[in-house]
Design a protein that fits this description.
This protein has ten helices and eleven strands. It has helices at about 5-25, 45-60, 75-85, 105-110, 125-130, 140-150, 170-180, 195-200, 250-255, 270-290; strands spanning about 5, 35-40, 65-70, 95, 160-165, 185-190, 205-210, 225-230, 235, 245, 260. The strands form three sheets. It has a six-stranded parallel β-sheet with strand order 1-11-8-7-5-6. Strands 3-2-4 form a three-stranded parallel β-sheet, with helices on both faces.
């Protein structure tokens, strides 16, 4: 039977560790780390995600600022808000919650954030720093994956890691992190990869981040592989009170018996994204206050 990688448990441990550090900071009569969030419009899913981040800040003792702007906000005005947060000495890190209104450039908004305050790790400078000896603030989701493997003592050095999905948020940065920090041999697959099964069956560590429920079946996985499922998609389910359930990219029931380790969906990688955001915010605070 595989070891189920419990992201909820690890995220809770990380929050407890951060809360202790924040308590020590406050006990020494210093201000707490401060996270700001800009959210636009009334997208229900976005507000749910932001609510989770605010609750996490409260749980560890961070200060927080929530800026809710209209979906009609101009790109110029949104960039001004970002500039103001960049210049605010009491804000250690901030995020611009996606999605943004169609008339606002995500790339412009993201790269306007100062790298040292970019706790989502999305700016070009932070992305590029992955391949340096001392990376700045790492993209939150892949950072969470690396932390899970570290805490479960999963060996990556010299292993063959196959990453399915090349997005800027997950697959691409994780590939670099597995190569640079994990010292793994990395193959990255994407929508144009031919004979996907041929690649996935060679993986000692298989990471899937596509957003296509059930994409990976048991025929695509090597016996004893580590399987990390980042994909999370809402699918209709009349048996659920909400009318939907969360499904991963891996056919869990089929694949799990073949694995040495596997992440479930939900409860695997998902909780680690917010935990990573908190770790990045604490690091940003320490860099700004010369406590690193």
């Amino acid at each position: 039977m595989p070891t189920i990688i419990d992201g909820k448990k690890v995220a809770a441990e990380i929050k407890e560790e951060i809360a202790r550090k924040v308590k020590a900071i406050k006990d020494s009569e210093q201000r707490a780390p401060h996270l700001a969030i800009i959210i636009s419009g009334d997208d229900g899913a976005s507000h749910t995600y932001v609510g989770g981040k605010i609750n996490a800040c409260k749980a560890v003792g961070f200060d927080y600022t929530l800026m809710h702007v209209a979906s009609s906000i101009s790109e110029t005005k949104l960039l001004q808000h970002i500039d103001n947060l960049n210049q605010d000495p009491d804000i250690d890190g901030f995020i611009v919650q996606l999605p943004l209104p169609d008339h606002v450039s995500v790339e412009k908004a993201t790269d306007r954030i100062l790298p040292e305050k970019d706790v989502d790790g999305f700016t070009n400078q932070n992305f590029g720093s992955i391949v340096t000896e001392h990376p700045l603030l790492l993209p939150a989701t892949p950072f969470g994956v690396m932390e899970l493997m570290k805490r479960y003592k999963i060996e990556t050095k010299g292993k063959h890691c196959v990453v399915v999905g090349a997005s800027r948020i997950a697959g691409a940065p994780l590939s670099l992190m597995m190569m640079q920090q994990g010292l793994a041999t990395v193959t990255i697959c994407h929508m144009y990869t031919e004979e996907l099964e041929k690649h996935t069956k060679e993986a000692d560590i298989l990471v899937v981040a596509v957003g296509k429920p059930g994409l990976v079946t048991k025929q695509m996985v090597k016996e004893g592989a580590v399987v990390i499922d980042i994909g999370t998609t809402r699918v209709e389910d009349s048996t659920k009170k909400s009318g939907f359930r969360l499904a991963g990219d891996v056919n869990y029931d089929e694949v799990a018996p073949m694995c040495s380790y596997i992440t479930p969906v939900p409860g695997g990688v998902g909780p680690m994204t917010i935990a990573s955001l908190l770790m990045n915010t604490l690091k940003a605070y320490e860099m700004r206050t010369n406590q690193a």
